[in-house]
Give the backbone structure.
Amino acid sequence: MKIKFPQKYRLGQLLYNKKFTVVLSVVLAFALWLGISMTENPIRQQTFSDLSALVTLDGTAAADLGLGIVSDVASQRFSVTISGPNYIVSSLKAEDFSLSASTVEINSAGTYNLKLAASNNSNKSGFTISKITPSTIDVTVDFIDTKEFTLVPKLIGVSAAEGLVAETPVISDSQQNTLTIRGPRSTIDKIASVASFKEVNETLSTSQTFDADVVLYDSNDKVLYRYTSDGTVYDANDNIITNSYLSLTFTNVKVTQPISKRKTVVCKPVFNNLPAGLAVDDIRYSLNQNKVTIIGTPEIVDKIENISLSAIDFRNVSTKAVHFEVSAILPDGVKFLESIENVFTVDIDASQYAEVTLDIKNIRCLGLNSELKAKTDKQIKNVKLCGPAKIIKNLKASDLYAVVDLTDKTAGDYTVEVIIKSDVYDEVWQIGTYSTSITLY
């Protein structure tokens, strides 16, 4: 049986269809071009430019020796020329190639001229890499060292308002007093000092904190590099550089400029455990330094009228013990203007005093729980006492008693300190400390 196509699908009719003939022409033209290209196989060359090369010491003996690349490999650019059939070459891109250089023979510091090799990164074949321009790359390697530096604060052009003092600036964060730098040995060896630098040029009336640059200096105090807080690096001529090949633990540093006030004040000795009848003004003494000049935060210094010295326990004062070394008690933020030792001497005039040794039998208990009873030693022997000579001359054991504080103590055996007192002579004091055994039941 003969199959008949509908009238609209007959070839004769299609040849007179304009749309069909246009499509057919395009298909035939492409087929003709492809056939010619594949049959004739013309060879074409093409050059790809602005390629970078990958150079690394990873996994090499150089890396094990502590060497690292310290030259700008990434900025060097190369071109690759390839040849092959036109239909293959025209389909390639610069991303289809990669350049590299072998570093396996590097074993010491220096500059090496390494031969480049090109690799095909694509899944395309049928072409050859005929040329790399330039064919080599210069690579400098050096030993990589790590070194710590003390960060020195430098604020330039700072002055203090009238009546105030601009002290030495300090690093605001004490944990940034030390900076660690890692980089090429040839560069590390040139660094002699590191400073946190800021040009202020201001007159200050209060302490202020500034963002400072980190500056590396050589042995002649000349700038090697300057790092701003945002990590930008400048060379000695203040030009921005892309890489110093140095790694710093931090570049964001703040420096505080203390503005202080100075004041001269008197020194005042302090005595503890004075007998009730003896006032400080009654004690004759001399100080090796009666006045000192202090410097500190203005609002604190303004409130200081005198400087107290560490307390002298009057129980240690006798006709033989009259010389005492004490230290000044300074508020936070205040120090001595001059570089003096924080040691003062107090000498007590004991010419008006005398001593006596007695056995104290009268022992009084304070703070004893009402439900308990106390049993103490019968007496406290060889108690040394000191006081005005005219009183000591007539002093008797019956004029004195020992006080024992038993507050909050429960039943049991204790050894407790006693305080010697007198209801008759309140200018007398004990020399040293004494104790007694006591049983609470």
